[in-house]
Amino acid sequence: MIPTYSLAERDRRWALARELMDAEGVEALVVYGEHESSGPAPFAPDVYFTNERPGSIVVFPRDADPVSLVWSPMHVADHIEARRRGEACWTEPRNMRVAKHAPGVVQVLKEHGLERAAIGVIGLEPYPPFHFNPIMPYGLWTTVLEQLPQATFKPVWLSFLLRTLVQSEEELAVLAHTAGIGEAMAQAMLEAARPGVTEADVYAAGMAAGFRLGAAAPGMLIQSGPGFACWGPPAWSYRPQAPRVIDDGDVIMAEVFCSYGMRESQHQVAIAVGEPHPGVAQAAKVARASYEAGLATLRPGATFGQVAEAMRRPLEEAGGWNVHPLVHGLDPYGTVCGFGGGLRELPEAAEYGLIIEVPTIGSDLPLAPGMAFAFEPNCVLDGRMANLGGTVVVGEDGAVELNSLTTDLLRSGG
């Protein structure tokens, strides 16, 4: 059965918002949501409160229901159609306005007599790992400040993050469903991988599987070759060139982002086509040891920093390094394991202007049941990388793995 959210989940989230306001001493929240179709790691706290189409600004007064300021009439048309179909909409029609701009925000705050109030804002702080700078548009926010000179605005993203990291039973059910779809995407990629096909063929197989099962798959990261130490979207997605043709002895590595109901799972796909280079196979063993170390440490009472350090230790012992995070938080993002330090040891590094390792963020966060993490241990040995892992939840007694296919180096039968 496909999971959905109840009105009890809505009420839980709205109560959380009011508890946050009490704790922060503010009379309302202004919640900025990134534009829709924004790709992996969307900044969409607006949807947390609306359960509607992404891309709005939510103004949530303490003593009233939240108001959703959307960017176009299309949002309203979608909402009308959903009501006609009997879908459970959280936003009343009177609380949806085509007014995603500074005057729209100001008007709602004035209607509730908040011109001189303290107001919490989500969107004025970094949102790692994809947004190391605040996402609130400068022009929009400076206009709000100019039009409400007697109001006090306070960033409250961290308070929101800490209150939403532990997911409800309904949210965990949605995440488990998402992870199952991500597993099917990885299986489809494995079946498609063989000599003579292109990276695009493997990419398409995974995406098609996700789409058929009703998930949003906003692209994936994918690389291929006999050995490499890089990570990112395929070059043919941003540079006009042909997708690489897969050869015998190649390894295909991908990061699958699967989203259903704005709960995202991640899956690290590593497929050996034929016999991989011994360096890749050894790096995969180290990555697997890192994965197991993380599972052993991910339990209530430990900190995120302890998990990151445990996962880093097998790499250090093997003389390897990680291109991207070994682990980071999910739903919402926030905690990130440090990465990229080994890049400075490459002979080409001296040719570049500045290379700085991204530090671990959120080391002191204590873990609690219901928190979700992307386990993505990756190891580079002698210029050859292996990457594996999946989505893991903190359970009452330890780690709960939501998928298993991508936690080892896969072998293509093609």
UniProtKB/TrEMBL annotation:
<dbReference type="InterPro" id="IPR000994">
    <property type="entry name" value="Pept_M24"/>
</dbReference>
<protein>
    <recommendedName>
        <fullName>Peptidase M24 domain-containing protein</fullName>
    </recommendedName>
</protein>
<dbReference type="Pfam" id="PF00557">
    <property type="entry name" value="Peptidase_M24"/>
</dbReference>
<feature type="domain" description="Peptidase M24">
    <location>
        <begin position="180"/>
        <end position="395"/>
    </location>
</feature>
<dbReference type="InterPro" id="IPR036005">
    <property type="entry name" value="Creatinase/aminopeptidase-like"/>
</dbReference>
<dbReference type="InterPro" id="IPR029149">
    <property type="entry name" value="Creatin/AminoP/Spt16_N"/>
</dbReference>
<dbReference type="InterPro" id="IPR050659">
    <property type="entry name" value="Peptidase_M24B"/>
</dbReference>
